[in-house]
Each structure stands twice: as C-alpha cells, then as structure tokens.
User: What shape does this take?
Amino acid sequence: MKMFSWLSALQLPSGKRERRNRSKHRSQPQHNGCAEVLEPRLVLAAPALSAISDVTFFSGSAVHIPLNATDADGDSLSFNAVSDNISVSADVLEGNRSLQIAVEQGDSMSPTISGEMTFELFEDEASRATSRIITLAESGFYDGSTFHRVIDNFVIQGGDPNGVPSGTGGSTLGDFDDQFAFDLQHNRTGMLSYAKSIDDTNDSQFFVTEYADPTVVNTNLRHLDSNHSVFGMQTTGEAIRAAISDTSTGANDVPNVDVVLTSVTVFVDTQNGVLRINAPEGTSGTAMVTVTVSDSSEQDQQSFNVTFAPDTHNNAPFLADIPSIRTLADTATTFQLTALDVENAPNAAFLDEVELANRSLLVPQTSNAAELTYDIGFLDGTVSVVPVNSFSGTSPITVAAGEFVTAIDYQVVPIEIVASASPWTVSATDHPGLTEANDGAPDEIRLVRNGSKFEVFVNDQPTAQAEDLSVTTLTIDGSRDDDTLIIDYSGGNPFPTGGILFNGYTVDPMEVNPPEDTGIDSLEFTGGAVTTATYTFTNAIDGSVNLDDDVLTYVGLESIADTLNVTDRVFTYSAAADMVTTGDDDLAANGLSRIATDGTGTTVDFTTPSGSLTINSGDGNDTVAITSMDSLFDGPLTVNAEDGNDTVDASEITFAVKLNGFGGNDSLTGGSIADTLNGGSGSDSLVGGAGDDKLRGQGTSGDTLHGGPGDDTLDGGDGYDHIFETADIDFTVTDSTLTGLGNDTLINIQLAQLFGGSNANIIDASAFSGRAFLNGAGGNDVLRGGIGYDRIFGGSGRDLLVGGDRDDVLRGQGGNHDTLLGGAGNDKLNGGIGHDSLVGGDDDDILTGESGNDTIDGGAGTDRLYERGNVNMTLSDTALTGGLGTDSLASVETAYLKGGNGSNLLDGSAFGGDMTLIGVGGNDTLKGGTGSDMLNGRSGADSILGGDGDDTLMGMRDDDTLNGGAGNDRLDGGSQDDALSGWTGDDLLYGRSGADILVGGDGNDSLYGSSGDDILQGDDGKSDTDHSRDDDRLDGGTD
Assistant: This one.
C-alpha cells in the first residue's frame, strides 16, 4: 500500500522563466455578420472579490492564498497584489491550468457529500507532477475512483482506481522522480501533493492537506516537505474538502462510505487565482496586502493583514536533479551531486550504498560490482564511477543526501557504458522536468566541456554528460519552442571528434498533424578562441560551421551569434542568387558585426576577427553590400564573388577590402582606403573609390576601371579595357599615366573615358594612343584627342575641341561659340546650338553646324556639310541660310540636307558639289545644283528639280512632280499619280503605281509606266525641239 514515508527525492527548484501564456483576460464580443443584437443590460457589472482573512506565516516558507472572485457578466478576470512592506513579496501566479475534482458520497439522489473542488496547478515549478496528473485526468483515468484514505485534519488521499485494495496500485505510465521547490511546502490547508511508498515512486496517487484551522499556517505536516512533491493549491470547494476530512472511516483510514471522484478535468480558471506571499528567511514583521481583481473595465479590491515570524522548522536537504551519465567501457568518470536546502544549511552529507548500509538505511538499488564500482565524497558530493571487466550496457547505482543522516533523499542513477565510441543524442525533451520542451517558452541548450567530459544543460539544468572518449558525433535535438544552442568553450573545446549536428526542431514521425511553427531557433558560440571559423550556408536555415576543423552542422536555424575570439572568418554561400549584406548588429561599438541575406543564408552576428574576414558569395548572380560594420571592425575584408554576374559594393566602409570577381560580368566597388579589385573573366566594372587602389580587369573581355581619388594602379589585363573618371578637375592621360584625381598608373588600357565638371577643365589625351571619350560637361573646356578614334563632347560652355590624328567625333553640344578642330582623319564635327566654328582639317570630314550662325571650314579632303531640321534651307558654295541660321562655308565639297515633317524648301541650286536632299514629310520643294545629286521627297506631294548633273530623283509617296533637268537623270515617281519629266539628257523614268505622266524630253530616254493608267511621251512634243538622239523606249506596263 502506498503510504507516506519520510524519504525525500531529487529536484532542483524550478527557475522563474515565463512559461505558458495563459493569463486571464476579458472575453471579446463576437457577432456573425448580422445586425448586432443589443442586450437589455446597459451597465456592465463589476467583479466581486471575496474577503481574504488575515494570515500568519513563517518567513522563508511561502504561503499560498486562494483568490475567489465572481463576475455577473462572466468576463475573464485578472488579479494583482501589492504589499506595503517591501520585505514581503506578494505575487499572483499566472500561466497555470487548473484541476476540477467532482466528488459524491452516498446515494446520488440524496448524497451525503456532493460538489466540486478546484486546484491551480504549479506547472512551472512541479512540471513532472503536473504533466502526469494532466495526462491522467484528460484520459479519464481518475473518473470513478475514490478518496481511499482519509485522516481528519491531516490529508485526504486518492488517485488509485486499479489497486486491490485501493492505495496499492497506480497507472500504466510507471513511476516518476520526486520534484521539490523551495516555495512549495506543506504549510497550510489545501496543498495538493503526490503520494508514494518510497523515494521516486510517484505515479497517480495524490493527497490534499487538511488542518483544523485552515487560516493558520501550521507545522503539523512540514515533515512532508522535501519528501512529497507539492504541485497545486486548492482555490474553491473548501467545504467539500472539509466534509471529506470529517467523514467516518474504518480500517486503514478507508471511508466507510465511498467518496467517489465522479470526474477529474483540466481547465483554465478565469475566475479564481492563487496569491503567493513570502518574506526573507529569519525575518519577522507585519504587512498589509491589497488584492485587486479586474475585468478590464471594472475592478474590486480587498485588503488583509499578514504577520510573519522566523520559521522554526528545519527542512531536510534534497538532491538536485542528476543528468544522464555516459562513459566508455573501463573508463572512469565522475559527476557532481548537489544538495539543496531551504535554510541553506551547509551540513548535508552524501552517501553511497556502502555508507547507507553501514547506517542500516534503505538502499533502493544495489550496484553490480562485476560491472562497475563507485564511491561518493561524503562532504563534497563527488561521485566516482569506474566501469570494470569491459562491461557495456546500463548499470544503476544509488546516491543519497541527508542532514546528519536523519532525513535521506535517494536517487537511483543509471550509468550508460558503451563498448566503443559511438554517436550520442541529447534532446531538449531530456530535461529532468520533462515539460520544458514544446511548452511555448524559449529553451536554452548549453554544451560545455568539463575536464574529460561533455556536459549538456537545458535551461541551466544539468541534463546529460558523457566522457569524450565515449562519443563520436553528438546530435542535439531542439523542440517546437524557440531553441538556442550555446557552444561554450569556457571549459575547453566542446566538440567530439565526429562533430555536432543541431536540429532546431525534429518532427516526431508518430506525431499527427505536426505544427507548421517550429520555433525561431538560434546558435551561439562563446567563451573561447579559434584560429579559423568557416560558415557554409546551404540555404536560409541549414548549413555548417567549421571551427579549426571541428564541424557543427545545423538544420532549421534562423540566427547565429559568434562571440569567439577568431583570427580568420570565412562565410561561404551556395550557388543561388544571393543578396548578402554586412553591417552592424543592434548595438554600436560592441565589437559585433552582422552578415545576412534575403533568404539564402542564416543571419550571423560575429566578433571582429583579428586577422581577416572573407565572404565567398558562391556561383549565381549575387549582390554583396558591405555597409557600415561595427565601429571596432577595421578589416581586412575579402569578397570572392565567384561565377555569375555579381555586384559587390563596399563604398560605405573605411577599411581596406579585396574584391575578386572571378567569372561573369561583375560590378565591384571599393571603399575609401587602399583597395584591391580583381575582375576576373567577363566584362567587369571596377570602382576603386578613395585611396590608393589596385584595379585589375583581368580576363579577355572588355572591363571598365574607375580608380577615383588617390594614386591608383589600373591594369586592364587582356582584352579591350577602358578607364572611366569624372571630376571637376583637369585630366591628362597617356598610355601609362592618368593625372587628375591622383597620379594613376595605367597598364593595358585601350580606351580612356574622362568627364569634366561645371568649371573650365582641360582634358588632354593627346599623348594617349588608345581611344579617348572626352566630355567637358559645364564650363569653357579645352578637350584634346589623341592618336586613336576619339569621341569628344564639349557639353555646355564655350569649348575648344581638338580631334587628333584618327577619325574622331567632335560635338560642341549646348555651349555657344564652340571651336571644333578635326585635325587629321575622317572626322565628324557637330557644333550643336550656338554660333560655332568648325574646321575639318585634313581628310574627308562631315561637318554639322546645327542651329546658330556657324563658321564651317572643311579644310583639305572631300568634306560634307550635314544638316537636318524641319526648316527651309538654301545652300551655296559659301553659305547655308534658312531656319538653322546663316552659316559661312568654305572648302565644303558635298552636302546632305534633310527636312522634317513640314513643307520644306531645300534649295541647293547654287551649290556646285554633289548633294543629298531629303524632304521627309510635307509637300516639299527640292532643288538640286550642278553636281550629281540625290533628291528624295518621301511622303507628301513634293516638287523635285534635279538641275545640272546626273541626278537621282525619288518621289516615293503621294502625287509628286519630278523634273530631271540637264544631265542623265533617274526619276522614280513612287506611289500615287506622279508627273515625271526627264528634260534634257538620256533619262530613265519610272512611274510605278498610280496614273502617272512620263515625259522623256530631249535625249534617248526610257519610260516605264508600271501599274496604273499612265501617259508616256518620248519627247516634249514641241516643234522647235531638236530631235536628234531621240530614240526613246516606252513601256506602259499593266493597265
């Protein structure tokens, strides 16, 4: 029969971590989408708090007081308590579920006892006990059982539906260890506690304490402290409990009439609560405590007096929870026992089975000397275990603690002994409290080395330890909570030889409908130093960390914090298109920087390495942004962009970086110190920024190098590479140097692209053999091309542009009075708006004045005037007049004039060279000159006169009139009804589509009507026309 013993059990007092969030709150009104129905009640009722009697208690022995309230509206209630004595704590417990026990004695029609008792469960501090009773209650295990043992003014005990007789059985779940806490004592009526036979044999039976005067703190049951596990406090149904206590009993304190537990249910109590009051051990005094109950809109208060005096009862010490123990065959190991005592008494003794036997005390489990030997330090609690005879398996031993060996707390500890090093698994669920994992509160798992042992703590509770020689790989499994694994180097290297696997959350294959939310899990490294830390990211939550060849692989992590002292750090990403950002963490100047991605790597906060930091972005089109790191970070930093078209930007930082592009078309931007940028293969863009930078284009594709301020070295490498600089300063470029923003060294550069600023700049490429692209921007600039094929743009301002030796393009652009000197080569000169001076120089040039009164001199060679605009233009050998201005011409041998969509007059009749006139839109008039001209009306009803020379006239669209004039001309009417006259010479006339009139005129002409109703006439039909050489060919075509 499970009776009360004086044996104690093992359990650390639970910490104060916040667990389940089941705080009471007011229910919110709801509706179903229809018109809201107004209740007749206009004023909400305030909650009512029952009176609380004055309390006397012993300091250091916390007392629990039920809080009972009602609310006519049925609203959820919350409680708050304050004490007017700062030495007296008054705390309302929160986040706990409650137990309701419905009882009945006698005939159901006229029962002697009938009603309910409710108890708030201490889920945080007695997790093993509350987990067991909740499991059994929810399964219906207790329904129909009885209170089988009743001792008036002492206890009422129940919870055994299976025992024959009652009190000798239990559930099929087996026994669990005792669980004690300093604040949970048997010091008043209504404490819910577990019954057992000997140490650590808790199962299903429980009891409720009963004092003659429930308002007085008593010591009658204090001998049960540190012996039986308190796990709840009664909140309602005191009269039912008192009636059960008063019921008549027979042999073995069994009630003469069964007191039946008709139902035991678990619920969240929104109307009642528990208040805990305590004062420091050994103190005395008084206080007034005020309790407030609220339904969020109304409240009620009750005040009561408390008196406290020193506790004269000496609680027995009890053993803290012991972790699981693992070692290798024939390999000694040790572990530490800790005795806890409410009074902090220093005189606890620790006993092994030999010491227990010598004192004629119980030995719950005798060890097997053929498997191991062990002993315990009597005063310090150190347990030494020595496996023998190559035994492997599990071998249990008994440990105990007591005060002056008068009250003993036992623990049976299984020792796991492995034949050879093998994998070891520890889970958050292994916490001795059993309910820490998957309870909704964050969990902390810590791995640390202690001498030759690995030790794992869950929420600061020793949970598992193993000799290092017994472990190959260590797997640590998290839970659905927010788990943090801490790898602690403070005791030495905590890695087993085979590394560590951390599963942020492992799905139980037997779990039905596992939750989608598996917690926000993290990893921390702390307490030591390594030479190299290499992070390899598989994706946003999976990857590995290599610390001096010790590897931790993780699955399902959201963040990592690494505060180790590290010489070199390396971060390596996958072949995905990564967006990597480095910067400061959430605190300035704390030595921690952060590296993160948009979903392809785990976020890592890390201390500044003393040597180097390297980022390998992996293949793929990556973006790496090196933003402001922690102020204590001073580099150096290397980014290896690897294959793909990558963008790396370090422009915000003030320490040296090395950026390597590798394959792909990369964009690399350095910071403000001396940086090194290597483009690799591909067409790369390298921007050095401030500082004395080294930029290497590399590869065979065309790279762009921008050194920026400082004395830079710009090496294009193989391929066609160019430099680009822009600043409001003067530039001088040669094949080996560039001065301006500094004194740069140039190597293998084929193109120089230099831009000035708003002031007057001199940009000189006259000694550069490659191509020069020069742009003066604002100001009155002097721009000089070189030996290559240059493009020179003046920008705004009064600029001087000098072309150099090859075929150059010079554009005056927006300034006024620009001077463009083409020099040698077939150059293109465009003055832009304003009154400009254009000199073509040697060779065959193309000159465009655009708007303004320009001076245009073609110079030597066959030069062409090129103008276009929706204006009238009249051209002679010395001038171009019209809508673009009045230009002075010299040495212009050919011309190209193009109108617009209006009806333009393009008159070159006074020009002696060859011309091209194009009307574009509108009804244009085009007049050729003495040269061999090409005149094209395009759309519109155009009038085209060829003039002298062998001309080509094209009407194209609409009803055009074409007159070839003198010379052997070619006339093409195009579509619509055209009139074509060859005039003199041997002409070729094409009517094309439409009803055309074709007149050959003088000479041997050929006329082709093509489609349409055409009229073809070989000569002009006049009697005075000389008809010699007038052998014409006429082809009417179709229709």
Observations:
- The helical segments are 127-138, 238-246, 353-358.
- Confidence is low (pLDDT under 50) at residues 1-42, 1023-1028.
- Residues 312 and 318 are 18 Å apart (CA to CA).
- The chain has three helices and 87 strands.
